[in-house]
């Protein structure tokens, strides 16, 4: 009984209270639809939106930019992190560059990406890749540094060479750390896509929202925000599910 | 796993050594292994140190001894005296600061040695692999087929009493069990040079006695050259052909004590004399040596 209450009733109560507060705000302050539409209004807008082709095109564009950038940045980040972990000289050369760039947040690059790539997808893809890259480099290098030293010695004892140990022992042993970083990177990458689309784009969810805001379709703005949240949660869950296969021994 | 499962695994141990003998004997004859091989391990005036912060800590100071082909040298000494370092040097995991380690007449190089099997103080099992794959992987990296490797792994897991745990992951094992898997992994390679770093340290007393007996039988099979680091002097007498007694750090060899067949009989006065001799070297009067 208590599980039903804790798992269903109480969360539901929280959601209902939040929606009620929203509805009450609209009623009490007599807010016009342009400023803040009611939850019911937003829900209807969302249902209408889901039935249109342009909406799905915008979702597809945002997801494409995200996935392409995520894979690019993730692959480069893991490869660079592995090199930093394995090769002392590379670490010495790469560390100052990475340390100085990684605190220039991705959003600081948005004006430059628009200047260089206009409103095309490439600018967004590179921005996501940039955001994901630094998360992955730092965490991959750190996870590899934390691998138990005995495992490397065991690798040598079993007849593995340096790079066999790097890939089959170090990278594999670092996989749990890399996988949890991959989830964090997904959240950051998704934020980067939306932010970039807000500022300069010709398609995508961020574009849809800024367009709606300019034509005072506030219902669409909020519905779009909800979709961004849902897609982000879906992406995070998908990456969690994909990385599970690598972590099942714990 | 229930208690009775473990019991049956141990019971089967009784006849597992001849079983291993039959199944793996024909493939054990590695090239150049029979007559005329000179699988001798020699430490010649070894000096070694490591750097901790700004301090240089001398570990080994002029260590020399030779382990002739097919014999077992048990190295005993105070903890932290550099016994493990000695094994690392012999395994090609580190280069000595001075002196040479040679194996089969040639200086040991950094990197893999195809004749080597080693069990480490920390078991060092790959946490993402099952127990069976942990034992099998050394065989596949050395070119055995996956199928063969699994079969051999199963045999050696049975020898160490862990046949029922072959599909478990290392996180599911106790410290002593993990250490036994580490031993099985080293033995399954059928190495010509076997280095063991306190392999039975985390194993309970009963299992330890069983493993010591199994181990002696397995050594008879292949007659590898063995360096066995232990802090247990009675274990050294039981398993060693010689006992190498090391001093405090920076360590040198205090004495090399030969062990005869008769010395291994724990009821004999010879055993007591050996024990007393080794302990006296170590500066203790009982074998309650801190480790």
Q: Oligomerization state of this entry?
A: heterodimer
Shape designation of chain B: globular
Order of helices and strands of chain A: HHHHHHHHHH
Fraction in beta strands of chain A: under 5%
The fold-level CATH name of the largest domain in chain B is: Rossmann fold
Low-confidence spans of chain B: pLDDT under 50, at least 5 residues?
1-37
Q: Judging by the overall fold, what is the CATH architecture of the largest domain in chain B?
A: 3-Layer(aba) Sandwich
Terminal CA distance of chain A reads 32 Å
What is the H/E string of chain B?
HHEEEHEEEHHHEHEHEEH
The level-1 CATH class of chain A: Mainly Alpha
* CATH level-four homologous superfamily name of the largest domain in chain B: P-loop containing nucleotide triphosphate hydrolases
Can you walk through the features of this model?
The complex is a heterodimer of chains A (250) and B (291). Chain A is 82% helix and 0% strand. Chain A has 10 helices and no strands. Chain A has helices at residues 2-28, 39-50, 53-86, 88-101, 110-117, 121-145, 149-157, 162-199, 205-214, 218-244. In chain A, helix 3 (53-86) runs antiparallel to helix 8 and helix 6 (121-145) runs antiparallel to helix 8 (162-199). Chain B is of the alpha/beta class. Chain B has 2 domains: 1-29 and 125-190, P-loop containing nucleotide triphosphate hydrolases (Rossmann fold); 40-115 and 191-283, Rossmann fold. Chain B is built from 9 helices and 10 strands. Chain B has helices at residues 3-12, 16-28, 83-91, 131-141, 146-159, 175-188, 205-222, 233-239, 269-282; strands spanning 41-52, 55-67, 72-76, 98-103, 106-107, 116-119, 193-197, 225-229, 242-246, 253-258. In chain B, helix 2 runs antiparallel to helix 5 and helix 2 (16-28) runs parallel beside helix 7 (205-222). The two termini of chain B are 32 Å apart.
């Amino acid at each position: 009984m208590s599980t039903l209450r804790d798992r269903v009733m109480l969360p539901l109560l929280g959601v209902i209270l939040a929606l009620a507060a929203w509805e009450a705000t609209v009623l009490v302050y007599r807010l016009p639809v342009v400023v803040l539409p009611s939850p019911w209004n937003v829900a209807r807008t969302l249902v209408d939106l889901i039935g249109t082709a342009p909406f799905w095109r915008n979702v597809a564009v945002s997801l494409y930019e995200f996935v392409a950038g995520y894979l690019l940045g993730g692959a480069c980040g893991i490869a660079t992190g592995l090199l930093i972990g394995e090769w002392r000289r590379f670490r010495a050369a790469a560390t100052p560059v990475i340390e100085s760039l990684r605190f220039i947040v991705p959003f600081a690059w948005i004006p430059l990406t628009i200047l260089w790539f206009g409103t095309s997808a490439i600018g967004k893809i590179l921005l996501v890749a940039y955001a994901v890259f630094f998360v992955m480099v730092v965490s991959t290098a750190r996870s590899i540094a934390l691998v138990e030293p005995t495992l490397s010695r065991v690798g040598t004892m079993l007849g593995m060479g340096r790079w066999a140990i790097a890939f089959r022992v170090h990278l594999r042993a670092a996989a749990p750390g890399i996988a949890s970083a991959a989830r964090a990177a997904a959240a950051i990458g998704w934020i980067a896509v939306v932010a970039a689309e807000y500022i300069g784009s010709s398609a995508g969810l961020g574009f849809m929202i800024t367009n709606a805001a300019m034509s005072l379709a506030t219902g669409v703005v909020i519905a779009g925000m909800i979709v961004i949240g849902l897609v982000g949660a879906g992406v995070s869950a998908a990456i969690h599910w994909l990385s599970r296969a690598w972590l099942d021994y714990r | 796993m229930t208690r009775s499962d473990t019991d049956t695994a141990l019971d089967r141990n009784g006849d597992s050594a001849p079983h291993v003998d039959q199944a793996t004997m024909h493939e054990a004859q590695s090239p150049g292994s029979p007559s005329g091989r000179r699988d001798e391990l020699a430490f010649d005036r070894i000096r070694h140190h490591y750097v901790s912060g700004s301090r240089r800590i001398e570990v080994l100071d002029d260590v020399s001894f030779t382990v002739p082909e097919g014999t077992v040298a048990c190295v005993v000494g105070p903890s932290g005296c550099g016994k493990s370092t000695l094994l690392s040097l012999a395994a090609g995991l580190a280069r000595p600061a001075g002196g040479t380690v040679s194996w089969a007449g040639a200086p040991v190089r950094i990197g893999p040695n195809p004749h080597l099997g080693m069990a480490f103080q920390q078991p060092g099992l790959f946490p993402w692999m099952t127990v069976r794959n942990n034992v099998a992987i050394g065989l596949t990296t050395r070119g055995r087929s996956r199928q063969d490797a699994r079969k051999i792994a199963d045999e050696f897991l049975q020898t160490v009493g862990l046949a029922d745990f072959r599909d478990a992951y290392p996180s599911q094992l106790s410290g002593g069990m993990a250490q036994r898997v580490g031993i099985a992994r080293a033995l399954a390679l059928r190495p010509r040079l076997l280095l063991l770093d306190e392999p039975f340290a985390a194993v309970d007393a009963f299992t330890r006695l069983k493993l010591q007996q199994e181990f002696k039988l397995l050594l008879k099979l292949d007659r590898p050259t063995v360096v066995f680091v232990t802090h247990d002097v009675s274990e050294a007498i039981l398993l060693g052909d010689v006992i190498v007694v090391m001093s405090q750090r920076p360590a040198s060899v205090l004495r090399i004590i030969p062990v005869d067949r008769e010395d291994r009989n724990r009821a004999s006065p010879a055993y007591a004399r050996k024990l007393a001799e080794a302990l006296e070297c170590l500066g203790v009067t009982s074998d309650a040596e801190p480790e």
